[in-house]
Amino acid sequence: MTKYRLLTSFLFAFPLAMQAQQKGPVESVTVTTENTRTGVYTNDKGELQVNVVPGDVRKYKAAGVVHYGDFGARGDGKTDDVDAIAATHAFANMHGLPVKANDGATYYMGGKERTVVIQTDTDFGKAAFIIDDGEVENRNASVFTVSSGLKPFKLETITSLKRNQKKIEASLPGPCLITVTNSNVKQYIRFGLNQNNGSSQTDIFVVDKNGRVDMKAPIIWDFDQITDITALPIDEKPLKITGGRFTTIANRAESKYTYYNRNIAIRRSNVLVEGIEHRITGEGDHGAPYGGFINIGDCSYVTVKNAVLTGHKTYSTIGTAGKPVTMGTYDLLANRALNVSFVNCSQTNDINDNTYWGILGSNFCKNLLYDHCTLSRFDAHQGVANATIRNSTLGHMGINAIGSGLLLIENSTIRGRSIVNLRPDYGSTWQGEVVIRNCVFVPMNGKPANASLVSGSYSGQHDFGYTCYMPEKITIENLRIDDAAHPENYQGPAIFANFNPEMTDGAYQEKYPYVKTKSVVMRNVTTASGKAVRVSDNAFMFKDVKVNGDGK
C-alpha cells in the first residue's frame, strides 16, 4: 500500500486590523492495492483519510475530471458532505485534476472544522451549497481555501527598504510576492470608537525573478529596520473557479468582535472567480460579524467577475472606547493583496438600505478596481495604493478610502453622503491625487443634505503613525450634482466638508499638522439646485487652496 500525505496550507483569518493564523487539518490520500472500495474516513485524530483503489485512480485520470459524487458526496441538502468534498479536492490536488460539482446537487456543509483545499480548476456549476453556521467548531477555519503548492521562504539578507525602491537584491526562483514587516514601528493608530494602538508597519509588493519591483504597485514606506520579510512564489498558471450558488445560514452568536471566517479564502495569486452567487439567510436580532465570504489575502492578480453577493445585517456592540458602535461585517474582504478586480458584481439587497453594512472592507492593498459594479460600498481601511471605480453605482456607504497614489472615479453614480469620504479614524489621509470624471453625485440618495464632494475630519491632535495628507490635487470633470432635494438655507455644494470646525483662525495649533490640498480643477460641474459649488463652510482652513475652472 502506497501512502501519500497532503498538508493543507496555512489559513489566514482577517478581522480587519488583526490577523489570526491557523493550521488546517492534515489530509491523507491512500492509494491501495487491497480489494477495498474507494472511500473517505476520519482517523482517531479527526484527520481526513481517503482510500482510492488503483482502478478508480485510472478511471478519474482518464476522465480528466473528478466529481464530488466520486468520493461519496450525497448532494441531498441534508447529509453533511464536507468530508467528501474535501477528499475530492485532496485527490484532485495530488493528480492535478479539475473538480466538477453536479449541477442538480445541493451540498450541505455543517460546522465541522474541515477546510476544503482547492489547488486546481473548480467548476461549482449550477450546484447549490448550504453553509450552516448555527454550530461551528472553529469560526476562524475557512470552508474553502484556494492555495498554492508553492512554499514561502524568508529573505534573511534584506535589512532595509526605501519608498519607491526599484529593485531588491535577492536570489529568487521566479516572480514573487514580497511581504515585509517592521514590528517596531506602529502605523494606522486608529482614532475614535474603535481606537487601537495601531498595526506594525507593513508593505507588500511583487518582484520578478531578478528582484525588480513592479512599480505599478510600488513600495510605499521607508523601512529602516525589518523584523520579517517573506517571499511567496507566484503561480504563473491561472486557476479558475466558476459558478456555485452558496447560501450561508447565519450564526446567532453574541454580537461582539468575534469575526466568522466561514468563507472562500483566496491565498493564491493569479485566480479568477466567475459567476459565483452568495446569499444569506437566518439573520436575527443579533449575531457575530463576518470577515468576507470571498476573502482575498496574501496574493496578487485576483479577479472576481459576474458575482452576486449579499450585504450582512448590521449589529452593534461596545467598542474599545467603551461606547456603542456598529460592527463592520463583510461579504467581500481584501487584505495584503495586490491587483484585485471586481468586475460586473452586484448584491441581492438594496445598496441604499442602511440596515445592511457596506459590502467591502480592505487593508494594506494596492490597485483595487470596481468596474461595472453595483455595490453598497468601496472601502479602504488601513490604506490602499491606487484605486479605480468606473462604470459603477455606489450605495449608501459610498466611497471610503485612505491611502496614496491615484484615486480615480469615472463614469459612475455615487449615492452616499459625499463622493469620497477620507476616513477620519485613520487620519483622512490621501497622499496623491483624486480624479472624478463623468460622474453623477446624488447626496444621501436624494434625501435633503448639505452636500460636500470630499468629506473627512482631522483635528491635528492625534498621532496616526504617519503624516496625514489631503489629496495634493483634485480634478473634477463633467460632474452632475443632483441636489434638488436640499434643506432650507442651503448654500450649495461644498468641495470640502468642514474637516475641523475648531480651526477658524491662526490661533488654532495642530500638534500633527495636516498637509492641505494645493489645487482643485473643475470643468463642467453642474447642480440640480442651480447653486454654485463652494470651497467649504470652513473658509479659513482651505483659504490657500487654488480652485480653477467653472463650478455652477
UniProtKB/TrEMBL annotation:
InterPro entries tied to this protein: Pectin_lyase_fold/virulence (IPR011050)
Signal peptide extent: 1-20
Keyword annotations from UniProtKB, A to Z: Signal
Protein name: Pectate lyase superfamily protein domain-containing protein
Record organism: Dyadobacter fermentans
Lineage: Bacteria, Pseudomonadati, Bacteroidota, Cytophagia, Cytophagales
